[in-house]
Amino acid sequence: MFANKRFPRIRWFSPDDSPSERRLLLKLDLLIVPYAFLAYWTKYIDQANINNAYVSGMQESLNLQGNDLVNLQTIYTVGAVLGQLPFAYLFTKYPVSYLIPGMDLLWGVFTLLQYRATSYEEMMAYRFLVGWFEAAFFPGMHYIFGSWYQSHEIARRGGFFYLGLTLGTLTASFIQAGASAQLDGVNGLAGWRWMYIICAVITIPVGILGFIVLPGTPDKPNRIVLSKSDIQLVRTRLQKAGHGVQESSVSWKTCARVLRNWKPWALLCVDIFFWNACVQTTTGGYLLWLKSLNRYSTSKVNELFAIAPGLGMFYTLLVCFASDLVLGPAWAITLAHVWNIIGLVIQVIWDVPESALWFAFSTMYSSVAMSSVLMGWINSEIRHSPDERAIVLIVLNTIAQSTTAWTPLLVFPTVEGPRFTKGYSFVLACAICLIVSAHVTRYFIEREYVCFDGCCFFGDANVSRDRAIAASDEDSGASRDETESGSAVVQVARPKTEYRCTDGEGIDAK
């Protein structure tokens, strides 16, 4: 399949980008990517710290018993799921450069309030509200990526954004290790309470920064950081690539168009399997296993936990760059989850040498490494309409994430830890289904292409070969771009007419 491909150079810009486009892309990168990374970093510090707090004294302080930990994890997910729904409407109605930072600030406030929790019930309320105010961030940032970048530019930038997840989980471990070792008992507060104070001190300034640097969308831009010429150049290059840029309020007609389109339904299946194929990263199994060894101090347990997310940073960059430059989304998903499956098989067997379990836990963050690949794929397939894209990103993420509100309760009950036989078996099955569903979706997307002598059209099955060749030769009517796999595509300035040139070998693999 890849035999006729030249191995591409690792590059940030497309060879066809003009100097002015490269300057603009660099400006957008410096505005969007660092903020996305920082905010996602704080989000995952604030999400993952419940597991670190649990093994660092919170269990005893709040008298947590039985499945209280998995309940605290689940109530966060419930808040995150329910909190997303209004934004299918709000993303196109109001500037996202205000919406997202505003929510960031509020999640920082409720992260802080967790330090004062005195009961299980109070902590449950705080966790729900932290999830609620964090809800818009993940789909919102991918909506922003899809609003400014062409399809083949999203995954590798999303990869740097997604490093915030692994670094946040890693940082939470180090923060808790330091708080347990240095701050436990200071001013009468336990180390786990200091961790929440430190996390809030990090989160709130990042939220304030967002009001300044987030560029919004081309239709509702932040004019503090972007000029009129910047916005016009973005709109021009996106429209040439077949991206819609004009936002309008979501209507019932918009919803009906989404429902009639088969692609969101197929991508929803992929997304559901993805969320459940990586659920082991949030259930605390690795921490519970380290604690069960009874040979490490509390601070050492938190330090050792950092190994897995640290490796996850490498996995994320590898998979996202491979998707944009070599493999395309379906094969990048396969790469990530074959590695995940190897670790899961070991965890299901469990009765193996301890070194094998260390290896298995070190693979688990490969399961989330392809998240930006999948979201970039969704952005690409629904790029023609910002309104439909907002609905699809929110609804798919909401439904898929909602499944993880109850599956951990069934297969990862805290009382069965650290050997979650049901849990790891379930995740293994989901990882296999994820790979299969990704390739089935890829197959049916490619069936929409109509090929003529090495050029493949999609979106209009009635185009003719002569019309295609004429369109490709018109300087004003078509522009050359690259797809997710790096193959050439000509986007024609007519509704729903694009084609891909594959050097006479038929449709190029995405």
From TrEMBL:
Task: Give the location in the cell.
Answer: Membrane
| Keyword Transmembrane helix recorded | yes
Gene3D superfamilies registered for this protein in UniProt: MFS general substrate transporter like domains (1.20.1250.20)
User: Which SUPFAM superfamilies does the UniProt entry name for this protein?
Assistant: MFS general substrate transporter
Alphabetical keyword list: Membrane, Transmembrane, Transmembrane helix, Transport
Locate the region Disordered: 472-496
User: What does the record say about its membrane topology?
Assistant: Multi-pass membrane protein
Q: Which GO terms describe its cellular component?
A: membrane
Q: Write down the InterPro entries for this protein, in alphabetical order.
A: MFS (IPR011701), MFS_trans_sf (IPR036259)
Stretches of the chain forming a coiled coil according to its record: none
Which family is this sequence assigned to?
Belongs to the major facilitator superfamily. Allantoate permease family.
- What is the protein's name according to its record? MFS transporter (Seo1)
From what organism does this protein derive? Aspergillus tubingensis
